[in-house]
Structures are given as structure tokens and as C-alpha cells.
Task: inverse folding
């Protein structure tokens, strides 16, 4: 952090201007957000204004940008927990039994809904004799919709839930002896899960901050993201973001074997970390670093297989449940396919999970569109006048996956937060998008509340979805603009090549791309 010492500090008031950010920094020199981000400059006015020209940087014995970022993340996580706490309140029914208070649509009215709470019973985690992928149960027994169900999450996430359920049992046992406070089992389970998810997000903030090198303050965007306030405890996605962020850090430090191992573990929790192998492949092909990519990809696949094979062999039907449900799952209310279907009245994307109808057309369209998007990103990578940064391509690939996928659960937006900070370190722009995306939660909850209960009609919710998606498309367009005009990229304008590129950082292209014969293109190559 910065220590301001007496006369060495130049106070910047409303009548003075902050120092101009240099176009190119010396090695090791930090980027100062209060110099080149108007939002940050305005936020610093209550504490003395932007950083002075002669301020002593990096001298404080304890406070550093990373520790400040982690502190901000802790505050955001506390606020996020309070936002969900309304959904673990209890009441006493007429028989004197304590019940979870979800009366009168509380999860939607209070907007505190979290998947963690209903999953405790729906995945049979409240039974002490269950084990993921081995234990099965029957839904809709005695009807035409009768199905046998198993744990529906990937292996690492399923085990995470089961371990937390066992910790809940242990907590309640100790609470009965009077050594710990008691509560409803589901409330204890939620709090234990929230603790680990909070630690996972702190790891995400830490790893992103370490990856940013000369822009450590940008990690504050990950720490205080409005999406964290709303969604870090909505589901279990913080586990995958932690593995993804640490994998990128390992790659940045030229440890492809560790990066691959972490990506494999992340994929065992949520499949999306494997998507990062796509931009890495494109960049390594252009830079002639295919061996490093093959090592990372091989270890990622091997790790994923090692984690999954024991369950696939011991309980193949239960292990396959996650993949079966994702194949048979219909379009999500948050997807563009649902918007198209609703506006056009066309039922070609339809599929009924309850009756086992697989949406074949929808699955094919999703696959074709995503592959086409990846092909386009590959073309941009290989034809750009300067090799793109890893953060830029990682954001494009994951954003393309979400935009073309049939499911965009609200917590999936957390995947984009650290990647967006790496790709587009523009504070006002990113905070605007994060606020917009987080606000979609309100019409979503009001839509699920139902019009009969004074909720919102579907059109309002779908309108918010379209605005959210257009915002992400706009970010992707800006990234592509920065790729083709590197001088407008804040990272490269400061003199860096690819801070998280690892072997790619500063590496020559295997086949250099000839610049266009325009003054602008020649300036870019220079």
C-alpha cells in the first residue's frame, strides 16, 4: 500500500489535476488506478484525493494492495451472507416443531434464495446413511413421471456437499452436548458451506491479484464485485473459480503441470475450467509453445479422469446422472433460446426433463454455435496484428460458452468476473456491467414469485436477460477491438505484453502475421 509522508505528498483537490499516467512504465512500476481511472480518482477524494507524484509506494509494513483487496473481499462476503441469511430463519409451527421459514414466498420476496438450502434435502444430504452417486431415490413415485435420481453434480462438488453434511452432523452432535450453539440442520449446513465458499472466493481474489503483477489494485474489482454480493452463496461455483484463478497463476509462473492439475480439479467441480485449454491452444499454436500446452492439457485430463474413474466404476449410473441431466435439460429461463421461443412462439427448442424428452434440436444448435464462436476466436487469434493476451481470449471463450449455452444459471456470471478483470481492466465499464448483471436477480426472483403473488410477468424478466446478454456482447466487442488495436488495451498501453501469459509473455510468434499496410497497423507492430 502507499504511505503518505509529510511534504512528499501532493494533495489533489477538485481544483488540481492528478498526474498523467505514463504511456509506458518502467519494469516493476505499478499502475496507479487513481491516475487513469476517473471512478477511482473520484472515490479517493474523501481520503485526500488521488495519489501524489512523490508519494512513497510499497513502504507500508503490512498493508499491500493484495491485503487491502482481501479485506474488501471479506467485507463483501459478510454482506453477501447477510443477504442470504433471511432464508435460513426459522419459526415454530402449531405442533411446536421448528421449521425453515419459507412462508409467503420469502426466498423470492427477500431475494435471498440459495440452491444450497433446498439441495440439503433434495439431494438426501440430511440422511446420515447416504453417499453421493451410490444412494438413489425415487421421485414422483407411482406416477407416469416416476424416475430414479442420484446426486446431480460433478464429483468434486458432490463430495463437497456430502462432507459439509457430515460436518453438520458433527456440529449438531456437539451442540446437543451444549458446547456449540444449535440451529436447524439446514441452517448449520448452509453456514458451513458458506464458510468454505467464502474461502474459495478469497483464493480467487488472491490468485487474480498475484496474476495482475503491475496492476494489483485491479483485484479490488474481483473482491467487491456486485455479483459476489448476490451470487457467491447462491450455488457452489466459487470452488471452480478458485481452481481456475490459481491455474492461471500457475501458468503465469510457467508451471504448466500445476496449471493442468488445477484445471483438472476445477473441471471435477464444474466443467467450465476446461474451456481455458481452448484459448491456450490458440495462443500456443501461434507462439510455437505446443509442448507446454500439451503438458497442461494432458495433466488436466488425467486429473479429471483420476478423480472421476473411481465413481464411474463403482457407481456408473449415479456418476452418469450429471451428464444425463445436462443432455436432457431444457433451455433455462435465462437463456437466449428461451427469449427467442417466447417471442416467436416456436417450440422447436422444447424439451421436457421430467418426461425424459431430450431437446435434440436445442443441443445441436448449442454445439454448432459454440464451435462456430470458438472458430471465430481462433481466427482472431491467428490473424491479429499482435498475439492477443491470455486473459482476453479466456474471457471471450467463456463468454461465448455462456451466450450460446442453453443454461445460464445466475451464479455462472461469477465465472466471468476474474476473467473480465484480466481482459478489460476498465473500472467504470466493469462495475457498470457487474451491477447490471447483478440486478437481473431482482426480476428473476419476482418472476418466480408469480404474477398471482404480485410478482413480475415473464416479459420483464426476459427483457433484463436480453440487456444482460447485450452488455456481455459489448464487452466481447471491446476485447476484440483491443486485440486489433493493442495501443487501446490498458495493459499493453502501459508497456506489458501478456502478464499472465507465462511462456507466451514476450515470446516471438512462430509465424509472424504481416501487419496491414496502414499507418495505424505499422504503429501497432512497432
Result:
Amino acid at each position: 500500500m502507499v504511505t503518505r509522508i509529510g511534504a512528499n505528498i501532493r494533495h489533489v483537490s477538485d481544483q488540481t489535476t492528478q498526474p498523467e499516467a505514463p504511456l509506458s512504465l518502467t519494469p516493476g512500476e505499478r499502475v496507479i488506478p487513481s491516475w487513469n481511472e476517473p471512478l477511482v480518482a473520484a472515490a479517493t477524494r474523501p481520503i485526500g484525493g488521488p495519489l501524489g507524484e512523490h508519494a512513497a509506494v510499497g513502504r507500508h509494513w503490512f498493508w499491500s494492495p493484495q491485503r487491502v483487496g482481501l479485506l474488501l473481499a471479506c467485507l463483501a462476503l459478510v454482506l453477501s451472507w447477510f443477504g442470504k441469511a433471511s432464508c435460513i430463519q426459522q419459526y415454530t409451527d402449531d405442533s411446536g416443531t421448528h421449521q425453515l421459514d419459507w412462508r409467503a414466498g420469502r426466498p423470492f420476496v427477500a431475494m435471498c434464495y440459495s440452491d444450497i438450502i433446498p439441495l440439503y434435502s433434495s439431494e438426501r444430504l440430511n440422511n446420515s446413511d447416504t453417499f453421493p452417486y451410490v444412494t438413489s431415490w425415487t421421485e414422483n413415485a407411482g406416477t407416469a413421471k416416476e424416475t430414479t435420481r442420484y446426486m446431480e453434480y460433478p464429483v468434486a462438488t458432490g463430495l463437497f456437499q456430502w462432507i459439509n453434511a457430515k460436518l453438520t452432523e458433527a456440529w449438531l452432535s456437539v451442540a446437543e452436548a451444549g458446547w456449540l450453539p444449535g440451529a436447524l440442520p439446514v441452517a448449520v449446513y448452509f453456514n458451513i458451506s458458506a464458510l468454505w465458499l467464502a474461502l474459495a472466493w478469497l483464493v480467487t481474489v488472491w490468485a487474480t491479484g498475484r496474476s495482475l503483477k503491475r496492476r494489483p489494485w485491479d483485484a479490488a474489482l474481483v473482491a467487491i464485485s456486485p455479483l459476489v454480493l448476490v451470487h457467491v452463496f447462491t450455488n457452489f461455483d466459487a470452488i471452480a473459480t478458485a481452481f481456475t484463478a490459481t491455474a492461471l497463476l500457475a501458468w503465469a509462473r510457467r508451471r504448466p503441470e500445476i496449471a493442468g492439475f488445477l484445471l483438472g480439479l476445477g473441471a471435477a467441480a464444474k466443467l467450465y475450467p476446461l474451456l481455458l485449454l481452448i484459448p491456450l491452444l490458440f495462443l500456443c499454436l501461434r507462439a510455437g509453445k505446443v509442448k507446454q500446452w500439451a503438458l497442461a492439457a494432458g495433466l488436466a485430463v488425467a486429473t479429471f479422469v483420476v478423480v472421476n474413474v473411481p465413481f464411474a466404476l463403482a457407481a456408473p449410473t449415479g456418476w452418469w446422472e450429471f451428464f444425463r441431466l445436462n443432455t436432457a435439460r431444457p433451455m433455462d429461463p435465462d437463456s437466449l433460446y428461451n427469449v427467442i421461443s417466447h417471442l416467436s412462439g416456436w417450440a422447436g427448442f422444447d424439451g421436457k426433463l421430467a418426461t425424459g424428452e431430450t431437446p435434440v434440436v436445442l443441443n445441436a444448435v448449442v454445439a454448432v454455435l459454440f464451435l462456430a464462436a470458438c472458430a471465430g476466436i481462433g481466427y482472431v487469434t491467428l490473424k491479429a496484428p499482435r498475439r492477443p493476451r491470455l486473459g482476453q481470449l479466456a474471457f471471450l471463450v467463456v463468454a461465448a460458452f455462456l451466450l450460446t449455452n442453453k443454461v445460464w444459471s445466475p451464479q455462472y456470471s461469477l465465472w466471468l468476473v476474474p476473467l473480465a478483470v484480466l481482459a478489460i481492466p476498465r473500472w467504470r465499464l466493469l462495475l457498470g456491467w457487474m451491477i447490471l448483471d447483478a440486478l437481473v436477480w431482482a426480476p428473476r426472483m419476482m418472476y418466480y414469485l408469480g404474477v398471482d403473488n404480485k410478482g413480475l410477468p415473464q416479459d420483464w424478466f426476459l427483457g433484463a436477460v436480453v440487456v444482460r446478454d447485450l452488455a456481455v456482447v459489448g464487452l466481447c466487442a471491446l476485447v476484440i477491438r483491443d486485440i486489433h488495436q493493442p495501443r487501446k488495451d490498458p495493459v499493453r498501453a502501459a508497456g506489458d505484453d501478456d502478464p499472465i501469459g507465462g511462456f507466451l509473455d514476450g515470446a516471438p510468434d512462430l509465424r509472424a502475421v504481416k501487419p496491414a499496410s496502414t499507418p495505424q497497423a505499422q504503429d501497432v507492430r512497432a
Notes: The two ends are 34 Å apart (CA to CA). Strands lie at 2-3, 56-57, 90-92, 98-100, 137-139, 147-149. The first helix runs from residue 33 to 36. The chain is about 55% helix and 5% strand.
